[in-house]
Design a protein that fits this description.
The protein is an all-alpha fold and about 70 residues long. It is built from two helices and no strands. It has helices at about 1-30, 30-55. The longest helix is centred in the N-terminal third of the chain and has 28 residues, at about 1-30.
């Protein structure tokens, strides 16, 4: 009886601990500070992609030449 009871207790304990950790992790991920950081990161990535696209689109011939 003890051989079957110990694994059941361990499994239930692991489920409870993982549930608590998952709940805390979700609260941390969905906090206002993390959402603001993710928003700023996304805006910066969009800006970098746009600038990269503009620079690749611009040919060297269309750039003004330096006077020597």
């Amino acid at each position: 009886m003890l051989e079957t009871l110990i694994p059941l207790v361990i499994n239930k304990s692991v489920e409870v601990v993982i549930g608590i950790l998952l709940e805390k992790f979700c609260k941390w991920v969905l906090s206002d500070a993390n959402i603001k950081n993710a928003d700023n990161f996304l805006k910066m990535q969009i800006l970098v992609l746009y600038l990269d696209w503009v620079l690749r689109k611009t040919t060297l011939k269309s750039l003004p030449q330096e006077s020597q």
